[in-house]
Structures are given as C-alpha cells and as structure tokens.
C-alpha cells in the first residue's frame, strides 16, 4: 500500500509593512487648522525643524484653545532656540491670557541660546508684570549667568512684586554670598510684608544656621 505523505502548503508570503509616507510640510501647515485637536497637535509636532513653518506656528499659537496643542506648538517653536522665535514668543509675556503667559514663559526657559539677547529689554520692560514673568523664565533657564541676572533684578528693580519674584527664582540656587542683596531688598521695601517674610525665612539657610 502506498502511503501518501502530507505536504504542508507553503504559507502565502505576507507583504512587508510599509511605513506611511510622511506628510509634506505644506500639508502639515494646512493641518494646523484642522477641526480635530489631535490632528493639529500631530501637525505641530511634525513641523519640528522646519524654519518656513515658524510664522504659521506663531499665528496658530495665538488662537489655539487646546492646551495640549498649544504646548506642542511651543515645543516645536522652542526647539529652534533663535532670537527671532524667542522675540516673537516674548511678546506674549504681556498677554491678558494668564495660561498663555505661563506657557510662553515655560517655553522661553528652554531656550538658553537666544534668551540672553532679549534680557536687556525684558529687565526694563515698562509693564512690571512682564518683568515678573521674566523672573519666572530665569527660574528655570539653564544658563551660567542666571543667578547674576536675578541679583540684578533684586538690586535694581523698582517694583516689590518683581523683586519678590526674582528672590523666589534665586533662592533654589542662592548661597551665603547672596544674603547681603536679600537684606538690602528688605531695606528697600520695608512696607512689603511678603518680601520681608520670604527673605527672613531664607537667611538662616543661607547662613548655615537653619
């Protein structure tokens, strides 16, 4: 008797996965106005590194209402870290939209190459709220001169709210060498109880007696 061996059929070859084609920058720029916020966020992140898209991202940022989309736009813009982008963002430190002001400050704090060129004008901005926001930027800016800029604000700014914001930003990195400038700030604004409390609470630590 002849036994027929079973022959396993060769599995049909599966087509290789093909990565979807990346949308063009032009298509992504158009997608910034898509009704779907997920699509807008995807577009903002996809435009990373594209210089020609900077104006489109800046325009979209001013009207964007979704926080995660705006954060994506700011992340992409901040990655450029040049003076043009930083200057365009810094304008919004004076915005009436508190959430936008804070988001822009956080973005500027990630731009250590371009922020130094903006500081001379920001430190003397007529609006003291802009100077307060500048102190917030410096609080997180990774730059070797950050402490020196904050000391300048504490020593020279005429508004107690700005000085207090600068003190708050300086304290995490302050040392004994900063005690004198903090004490002088209290003397400059003797009627500001919050500033005085902030300094008095910090001095023992700076002196090593806390």
Automatic annotation (TrEMBL):
Coiled coil, from the record: none
Gene3D superfamilies found in the cross-reference section: Leucine-rich Repeat Variant
InterPro entries associated with the record: ARM-like, ARM-type_fold
Top-level lineage group: Bacteria
Residues covered by region (Disordered): 1-37
Name this polypeptide is given: HEAT repeat-containing protein
Organism in which the protein naturally occurs: Actinoplanes missouriensis (strain ATCC 14538 / DSM 43046 / CBS 188.64 / JCM 3121 / NBRC 102363 / NCIMB 12654 / NRRL B-3342 / UNCC 431)
